[in-house]
Amino acid sequence: MDTEISSGVPLGAYTLPGRVADPRAAIVQAEAAERLGLRTLWLSERWGTKDLGVLAGALSQATSTLRIASGITHFQSRHPALLASLAMTAQGLSDGRFVLGVGRSVDAMWDAVGLPRSANASIVDYADIFRRLCRGEKVRYDGPAGKYPSLRLNDIPDQPVPPLVFAAIGSKGLALAGRHFDGVLLHPFLTPAAVARSVAVVREAEKSAGRPVGSVRVYATVVVACDLPAADELAVVGARAVTYYQIPGFGERLAAVNGWDVEPLQSLRSHPLLADIKGSADSVLTREQLVEVASVLPTAWTGEAAAVGSALRCHQVFASYREAGADELVLHGSTPDLIGPLFPTIKVGLEQE
Q: Any idea where the Luciferase-like domain is (predicted)?
């Protein structure tokens, strides 16, 4: 049964956030998430130790009710037949509990690894190809998403096509989700007001596409640090914020969505520890160094867009996101085995193993 606390909103959570040397921790976290009654466990895919297919398969066998979602992968990182094969295998193993989350990422990443950049036309067409393959159809395609003379999955389980969730920040991405996807995953560090504006864009796109209102499930990602000492709270919230705001272009988009002045981004990026970093800061800096950098961020950039403090305070923040129109919250930063204080009547952790 889905967990709904006083906020009245179903909850999910991320497993293995950030850099990970040992992916086996995902099993413990998934088991804790299921004991808590969370609705969805999101896999933070990163090349190296967080491969989507391997983790989805493992977690499908470690759980029985939990939905397993990728949050997020990218269409161009896998051939369409391989991605559809991964998804339907995960559907078969999990008895239909898999959710595929995809995103656009930034052009610099795709240029660096030699893969094509994302464009709206290719995203829409790839989603259609994916769904058709998952239904067992034969696909012949030549267009923005590539050239595929003949694609088909010969064997598919008796399971539905996994829901497709699109990660979006700006109005164009939100509208794309509203017209073509089953869900939209909102970025961490959006204020409730920003979430409300985002939901409005999605619902208007649904309407313009002739889809029933509420067709697209809105997942709002909320970084949470409940009942933690101040130093640990800063490590969970501030360090994660740095990894987003320091990326040129990306930080500006987050600030714009929240209606914030972008000037603090210059102060952040001029910090000596970030001086020569070209990619993501958490691929180079330690957690302690990220915390040091986070000290230059305005308090509002974390305090108004995250859930911190007591369990009661976090519940109140969750309720504000629900009132903003979120259908489900995705807790980030604190893994399921560490969010026990949010559920004082449920014991989680290794002591129950």
A: 21-327
Cα–Cα distance between 27 and 297 in angstroms, integer?
A: 34
196 Rama class: left (phi>0) / alpha (psi -120 to 50) / beta: alpha
Tokens linked to 201: 């864009």
**Domain 11-227+310-342, CATH class in plain words:** alpha beta
DSSP classification of residue 273: G
pLDDT in tens, 148-172: 999 999 999 999 999 999 999 999 9
Of 16, 18, 21, the closest CA to residue 56 belongs to 16
The Cα-based distances of 336 to 58, 68, 184, 310 in angstroms read 17, 14, 22, 17
Structure tokens at 255: 């600030």
Could you tell me the residue ranges of all domains in the chain?
11-227+310-342, 228-304
Backbone angles phi, psi at 212, to 5 degrees: -60, 145
Residues 13/331, Cβ–Cβ less than 8 Å: yes
| CA–CA dist 313, 349 (Å, integer) | 23
Helix, strand, coil proportions of the chain in percent (round to 5)?
45, 15, 35
Phi and psi for 308 in degrees, rounded to 5?
A: -130, 160
Q: Is the pTM of this model over 0.90?
A: yes
